[in-house]
Amino acid sequence: MRKILFIFCLLITFAATAQRNSLSYYINAAKANSPLLRDYRNQILSARLDSQILRASLKTQVNFIGSATYAPVFANGWGYDPALSNIWNITAIVQATHNFITKNNLAAQVSTLALQARGLQDTIRLSEQDLVKTITDQYITAYGDQLTMDFNREVLDLLKREDVILKRLTQASIYKQADYLAFYVTLQQEELTMMQSRIQYDADYLTLNYLAGINDTTIERVSKPDITDSIRTGLYESVFFQRYVTDSLRLANQKALIDFQYKPKIGAYADAGYMSSLADQPYKNFGMSMGISLNIPLYDGHQKQFKYDQLALKENTRAGNRDFFINQYRQQIDMLRLQLNAMDAFESKIQQQINAVHTLIEANERLLETGDIKITDQVLAINNYLSARNLLNQNFVSRLKLVSQINYWNR
Q1: CA 227, CA 402: separation in Å to the nearest integer?
Q2: CB 201, CB 145: distance < 8 Å
Q3: Where in the chain is the domain with CATH 2.20.200.10?
Q4: Partner of 80 for a Cys bridge, out of 28, 71, 220, 248, CB 3.0 to 4.6 A?
Q5: Residues 303, 324: contact at Cβ < 8 Å?
Q6: What would you measure as the largest C-alpha separation in the chain, in angstroms?
């Protein structure tokens, strides 16, 4: 029973580790730890409060107004004119004001805040796209280092196995001491390469943690990145194009707000309380008042047309930027896919070479045991194998980054 529990715990630990070292783990950690994304989210929450503040400001406003003024008149008539100052003035009233606004005007003002929130959402999505690409590229780099490190370890193990054989054959005078030393130099060089690849992996792995906001210096392995070529969603659905749609809606909303600025405005007020100069029967100066206000714009020096002209210039800039982006987007996607196809063809050629060199190495191993091949021939075959495998790893990593870049533009 204890063995079963032990194995179960090991499986849980392995699953947790695998999940922790996956690409999705680092992307989620980066999103959660990003102060920039946190700031944008708080701005969206603040924009929602702005909407509530706007609606509250359009309701009837009630205020208490109080003041007490004393303007004394000194000897020989020095002081304010009593006819103007009344010497004493006391005011204590409650005032209610209400500005009437049409539904369309209210909808335009609410739409302004909604478009601000939409613009922030677009910014968040763009920032997340950049963050995901940064984390993905660094993860791919670390994974490529891991592949190189594993391959170097594999080659080092191969050389160590052959070292045992060649040392024995050299001692039996089947091979010359100089030939063996040439092979041994290759073995030592591979040990240095192995150490160098380990250092490089450690550095890129810690950089990945740093970019994701993870405070951990423990070096662990990463799993193969789950990256597949995304289905092309279409230019007009991409996050990059949606910002131009939002800008278009924002400009249309600004035009509507300008129109409402030049429509008549009606307001009403009412107050009640105490207002007195204390000059005559002050105990009777409790009362109330009410009224309405009307504001009709007549002439402002053609400011409305100037504002329209400004919006027209902004729309012209927006449309130009949109058209330029569309051309660049299509060219970028086509170029990336051409590179991807070329890499796929190149990978096939490299794999053929690797298979051929690997077969040659295995055949040479058998010939080495009988002394029917020069050690330098085997060293040359191993070096060719090293070059081909490193080229394959580089092509694999570059292909992953290309797919990541295509996904970046397609989402």
Answers
A1: 10
A2: yes
A3: 60-100+263-296
A4: 71
A5: no
A6: 136
Taking residue 62's Cβ as centre, other Cβ atoms within 10 Å add up to 12
- Spatial separation of the C-alpha atoms in residues 204 and 353, rounded to whole Å: 29
> CATH 1.20.1600.10 region(s) of the chain?
2-58+105-262+301-410
Sheet holding 286-295, edge to edge: 61-70, 88-100, 265-276, 286-295
By CB atoms closer than 10 A (0-12, 13-18, 19+), residue 355 is exposed
Query: Are 166 and 368 within 8 A, CB to CB?
Result: yes
pLDDT, tens only, 260-308? 888 888 989 888 888 888 877 888 888 888 999 888 888 888 888 999 9
CB atoms within 10 A of CB 176: 12
CA distance 277 to 64: 19
Cα 25 versus chain centre, distance: 16
Q: Does domain 2-58+105-262+301-410 have CATH number 3.30.70.100?
A: no
Q: Which residue has the tokens 């694999």?
A: 396
From the candidate CATH numbers 2.40.10.10, 3.40.1010.20, 2.20.200.10, 3.40.50.620, the one assigned to the domain spanning 60-100+263-296: 2.20.200.10
How far is the C-alpha of 15 from the C-alpha of 67, rounded, in Å? Answer: 74
> How far, in Å, are 53, 106, 256 from residue 251 at the CA level?
23, 17, 9
Question: Which is nearest to 147 in space by CA: 214, 74, 237, 223?
Answer: 223
Share of the chain above pLDDT 90, in %: 33
Of 121, 120, 123, 114, give the one whose Cα is nearest residue 54.
114
Separation CA 202–CA 345 (nearest Å) = 32
DSSP-derived 3-state class of residue 224: coil
CA-based nearest residue to 47, from 126, 113, 143: 113
DSSP conformation class of 213: T
Cβ atoms of 361 and 385 within 8 Å: the answer is yes
Residue 231: what pLDDT? 57
Closest CA to 385 of 141, 156, 165: 156
Look at the pTM and tell me if it is higher than 0.90: no
Q: In a 3-state reduction of DSSP, which class is residue 12?
A: helix
